[in-house]
């Protein structure tokens, strides 16, 4: 594998490992406290210059939103309740984080695309890395899995991205950015979208987009 391919895979690992836990963890009670703290103290311009797959200006805008949203700390009520509103409930979520909600005609969790991803993982001999209750097509889980595949099974990365993640990620993340009332989650959605679209361009992946029902 040439040096450029190695660098791309390292960038994919970084994106997945950095962003995935931020979708999965409650800022106050989750396991990503160190990540939230690091973002609160971030040198935005320096970080933007190093962020892979996204141009400096866009990365700075998105990282700046995330830092702004952490100005009062990760335990700030506005941030915590926004996470719970967007990802937990009990009220209906404005942008549910599961792929099948958008690609299944019935807009259900554990829909056909969830089952297709589960079957693909089984065929590839890939086990769930974290969380044994959330449907496999949760955006946070899929970003963490993307990082693992890039680091451990790079030959499967293109197929995983083109068949299972990139098919719906931009549609969802665009909706999430619009639904977010707190700058941290708007910035997170926009940075994740720009990063995944940048990875798609870097790897020259041809993606067939499904019909979206939501």
From TrEMBL:
Pfam families: Nitrate_red_del. The keyword Cell inner membrane does not apply. Keywords: Chaperone. InterPro entries: DmsD-type (IPR026269), DMSO/NO3_reduct_chaperone (IPR020945), TorD-like_sf (IPR036411), TorD/DmsD_chaperones (IPR050289). NCBIfam families: PRK11621.1. This is Tat proofreading chaperone DmsD. It comes from Gordonibacter massiliensis. The gene is dmsD.
């Amino acid at each position: 594998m040439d040096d450029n391919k190695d660098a791309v895979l390292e960038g994919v690992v970084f994106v997945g490992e950095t962003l995935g836990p931020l979708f999965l963890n409650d800022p106050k009670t989750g396991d990503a406290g160190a990540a939230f703290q690091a973002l609160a103290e971030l040198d935005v311009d320096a970080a933007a210059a190093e962020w892979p797959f996204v141009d400096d200006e866009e990365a700075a805008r998105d990282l700046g939103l995330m830092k702004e949203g952490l100005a009062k700390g990760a335990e700030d009520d506005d941030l915590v309740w926004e996470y719970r509103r967007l990802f937990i409930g009990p009220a209906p979520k404005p942008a549910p984080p599961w792929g099948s909600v958008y690609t299944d005609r019935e807009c259900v969790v554990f829909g056909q695309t969830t089952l297709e991803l589960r079957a693909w993982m089984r065929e590839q001999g890939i086990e769930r890395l974290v969380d044994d209750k959330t449907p496999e097509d949760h955006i946070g889980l899929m970003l963490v899995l993307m990082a693992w595949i890039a680091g451990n099974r790079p030959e499967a990365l293109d197929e995983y991205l083109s068949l299972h993640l990139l098919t719906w990620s931009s549609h969802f993340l665009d909706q999430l950015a619009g639904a977010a009332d707190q700058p941290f989650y708007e910035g997170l959605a926009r940075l994740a979208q720009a990063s995944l679209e940048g990875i798609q361009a870097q790897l020259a992946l041809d993606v067939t987009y499904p019909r979206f029902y939501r």
